[in-house]
Amino acid sequence: MPIVTVQVTREGTQPGSDKVTAEEKAAIIQGVSEVLRDVLNKPLESTYVIIEEVDLENWGWGGMPTQHYRQLLAQRKSSTI
Amino acid sequence: MPIVTVQVTREGTQPGSDKVTAEEKAAIIQGVSEVLRDVLNKPLESTYVIIEEVDLENWGWGGMPTQHYRQLLAQRKSSTI
Amino acid sequence: MPIVTVQVTREGTQPGSDKVTAEEKAAIIQGVSEVLRDVLNKPLESTYVIIEEVDLENWGWGGMPTQHYRQLLAQRKSSTI
Amino acid sequence: MPIVTVQVTREGTQPGSDKVTAEEKAAIIQGVSEVLRDVLNKPLESTYVIIEEVDLENWGWGGMPTQHYRQLLAQRKSSTI
Amino acid sequence: MPIVTVQVTREGTQPGSDKVTAEEKAAIIQGVSEVLRDVLNKPLESTYVIIEEVDLENWGWGGMPTQHYRQLLAQRKSSTI
Amino acid sequence: MPIVTVQVTREGTQPGSDKVTAEEKAAIIQGVSEVLRDVLNKPLESTYVIIEEVDLENWGWGGMPTQHYRQLLAQRKSSTI
């Protein structure tokens, strides 16, 4: 009877997309439920999966909002070339 | 000083309603706070209750989004009659 | 298919007890599951309840560990009499 | 590699504001990340911070939705003057 | 930068084992991290996985502690044969 | 009335220590409570802080348990010198 909570940033993985699609969510749910079935013998119907989408300004990394830290990382990378 | 987190699907319980109403939320808050008071002697003012409403496509069950699994269960049920 | 998470301090409610008893846990589980059934028509078998016991030194209140803050509140109270 | 989750009510701290601003969120992220760095020597880039804003009607306190309890506290206070 | 929290009951999946083994935990971590990589293109190093083991008496199902409910389900099943 | 949950690995920051000390926990509680007070004007007594210590084998990073990934990172680093 596992509960799996998946927290991801609310953004797209494909150009032109700005959110996780319903198909991607279904694939995440299927994938993690199968992991619990394969590793711990938990039947699929006993697993609940909760996907939480977090706005980028609500997700901090490196002591700042994620977008800022990503820009910083990109700048550092380009400046070392 | 309990903290109670209640995660429910974002949907209605009555025909025509598509979400948990403010009255239902207030009743949940009162009910679970009273449970903590009655069982553990926690005063009502020391309990925080957080209600998290989860979109149906973000809640997985049976290895798939909840709506799909409910449809599957309904089909299985009708096919055994 | 609600999930209810109940976080409480790991301590007893009765003299001589230093933890939440199995009977108290069962009563909490029954109580909150019945609230979800009564308010949102959720069948008991669709609700999962997780009880998390938190050591007192891991629970902060008033900017300090809970025991310290309780002592402070008790001192304030006695000094105003 | 700490994960810090900050749950706050969705409301403003300044007159005319009804939500936590992006500047306030950035300040929270920076502040708590620095606490983990200063106390546990965790590098800023290893800390994730998640801010969850909770609607007032979804946050219970004193056995009722927060707005109601605040009104009650305000009434009690004014009636004791 | 996903965060995946996996809550499971603290019990074994093999005869003679009463807990989730280190190998099973490693397999869960690998499996769910790969799901996030395959579905959302998240690099493995950006995903944190937290496994929370919950004592059976702290996990409620069907309005009662899980062991009791499992016994009830087993009795119902045997009585319908 | 914020709730701050701080998840850290259960390990020491000083040689010879294998866990977060009570003093470090008190400093974390004070620090994050002051951040909420300074940024959002939340009084210290309205903030709850929960510290969750997670065993190293229960915390995954890089698709594997944290100790393994740290060893891998250390090996990569030394091999590039």
Automatic annotation (TrEMBL), chains A, B, C, D, E, F:
Pfam families given in the database record: Tautomerase
Zinc recorded as keyword: no
Active site: 2 (proton acceptor)
Domain 4-oxalocrotonate tautomerase-like: start-end pairs: 2-64
Keywords: Isomerase
An example Gene Ontology molecular-function term: isomerase activity
Family matches, as InterPro entries: 4-OT, 4-OT-like_dom, Tautomerase/MIF_sf
Transmembrane regions listed in the UniProt entry: none
Record-linked Gene3D superfamilies: Macrophage Migration Inhibitory Factor
Keyword Magnesium tagged: no
PANTHER family referenced in this protein's UniProt entry, alphabetically: 2-HYDROXYMUCONATE TAUTOMERASE, TAUTOMERASE-RELATED
Name of the protein described by the UniProt record: Tautomerase
Species, as recorded: Thalassospira profundimaris
